[in-house]
Design brief:
This protein has 367 residues and is α/β, with parallel strands linked by helices. It has two domains: 1-103 and 272-367, Isopropylmalate Dehydrogenase, CATH 3.40.718; 111-263, Isopropylmalate Dehydrogenase (3-Layer(aba) Sandwich), CATH 3.40.718.10. Helices cover 41% and strands 19% of the residues. The strands form two sheets. Strands 2-1-3-12-11-4-5-10-8-9 form a ten-stranded mixed β-sheet, with helices on both faces. The chain has a two-stranded antiparallel sheet with strand order 6-7. Helix 8 (225-234) packs parallel to helix 9 (246-259). The chain is globular, with a radius of gyration of 20 Å. Bound molecules: nicotinamide-adenine-dinucleotide (NAD), 3-isopropylmalic acid and manganese (II) ion (MN). Manganese (II) ion is lined by residues 250, 254. Catalyzes the oxidation of 3-carboxy-2-hydroxy-4-methylpentanoate (3-isopropylmalate) to 3-carboxy-4-methyl-2-oxopentanoate. The product decarboxylates to 4-methyl-2 oxopentanoate.
Length: 367
């Protein structure tokens, strides 16, 4: 029986609450599935600052490098608002993404039939929605230099961030989008702001050239990012695969999340380049949502984004597509049976706890 190594980084706020549901499902899969899991645990975010003075320790980075996959809950919270910028909780997550080379962030937004009324949009706009946002994750304004606050000496300061993209970074993320589109509807929308940004001009040119050279059978459309935001809430079902940069992808995926009913529904996979020999990819799986300080500690967070992230790990890191499908069907089943955490409940509808939602998924999995 193959053994897969998995590093769990629950993080802060609701991170540990939703990760507890992953542990239940992993225990079930270990006992009932085709593979064994060797699970290790580590710290990232505010909890790592408290324990080690840094948002991720070198020892935990080494564990992440060695694992077949990393599962992360969420980082951040008001407790660490005052820490120096360089060691804020989010810096731990950014280091994991950058140092592991996780440039491809897949954020699927699927509106489950049972949740079509939970969206803030009308049912007919979101029912059957199935979008895949492919977000570039290791470049752009998140990492460009210089990034600093300069004292201008006249009582004024200047905050500087730098948006940078090289051709190879755009090509490799566009390739991921085109390849995935071939397995779906064959349609890609690429988004930037070439009307105001040079990196947008290069993005547009590079994606167009790659398309013409290697993917002529895929239908490619370009949308300026502001217009795309508008169209995502106007008529979201026109979209299939969307490829965009780090910052636009961050914003557009929170928008897409609300189409599905809640930020608590959106899973993600962050993947590196495949090793040419072993074909192994470094990978981290995490919900799109954050640590939700407003509800942390109450046991009411929605664990489905976290469990959906585990399903993505089964599919992309462990070659367990059948088990991934089965877990995703169990999530859909729990929703169809009417289990609702508070974020996806309609006014007056009864709600369940994080743990009860995990149990409902587990029961559907075992059925
Ligand atoms: P958030 O995603 O934590 O919360 C936004 C809203 O969505 C809140 O009202 C929250 O209660 C709700 N929500 C989020 N996840 C939910 C879930 N699973 N179930 C039910 N409701 C849920 O965003 P924020 O409040 O802007 O950020 C809080 C902290 O999280 C910040 O420190 C931020 O940097 C961090 N953050 C971390 C990640 C990550 O670790 N990947 C992602 C986003 C934000
Ligand atoms: C996300 C988060 C992160 C991001 C933060 C916490 C660094 O918002 O994963 O969407 O901006 O990428
Ligand atoms: Mn975000």
């Amino acid at each position: 029986m193959p053994t897969h190594t998995l590093l769990l980084l629950p993080g802060d706020g609701i991170g540990p609450e939703v990760m507890a549901e992953v542990e239940k499902v992993l225990a079930w899969l270990g006992a009932n599935g085709p593979a064994a899991f060797e699970v290790t645990r580590g710290l990232v975010g505010g909890c790592a600052i408290d324990a080690h003075g840094v948002p991720v320790s070198d020892a935990d980075m080494a564990k992440a490098e060695a694992a077949d996959a990393v599962l992360l809950g969420a980082v951040g919270g008001p407790k660490w608002d005052g820490v120096p910028y360089e060691i804020r909780p989010e810096a731990g997550l950014l280091r994991l993404r950058k140092d592991l080379g996780l440039f491809a962030n897949l954020r699927p937004a699927i509106c489950h039939a049972a949740l079509a009324d939970a969206s803030s949009l009308k049912r007919e706009l979101v029912e059957g929605l199935d979008i895949l946002i492919v977000r570039e994750l290791t470049g752009g304004v998140y990492f460009g230099e210089p990034k600093q606050i300069v004292d201008l000496g006249n009582g004024q300061k200047r905050g500087i961030d730098t948006q940078v993209y090289d051709t190879y970074e755009i090509e490799r993320i566009a390739r991921v989008a085109f390849e995935l589109a071939r397995l779906r509807s064959g349609r890609v929308v690429s988004s930037e702001k070439r009307n105001v940004m040079m990196s947008g001009v290069l993005w547009h040119q590079t994606v167009s050239a790659l398309h013409a050279r290697h993917y002529p059978e895929v239908q490619l459309r370009h949308e300026l990012a502001d217009a795309l935001g508008m169209k995502l809430v106007q008529a979201p079902k026109q979209f299939d695969v969307i490829v965009t940069d780090n910052l636009f992808g961050d914003m557009l995926s929170d928008v897409a999340a609300m189409l599905t009913g809640s930020l608590g529904m959106l899973p993600s996979a962050s993947l590196g380049e495949a090793d040419p020999v072993t074909k192994r990819r470094k990978a981290l799986y995490e919900p799109v949502h954050g640590s939700a300080p407003d509800i942390a500690g109450r046991g009411i967070a929605n664990p489905l984004a976290m469990l959906g992230s585990l399903a993505m790990a089964l599919r992309y890191s462990f070659d367990m597509g059948a088990e991934a499908d089965r877990l995703e069907r169990a999530i859909a089943q729990a929703l169809a049976e009417g289990h609702r955490t508070a974020d996806i409940a309609r006014p007056g509808e009864p709600t369940v706890s994080t743990s009860a939602m995990g149990d409902a998924v587990l029961a559907a999995l075992a059925a």
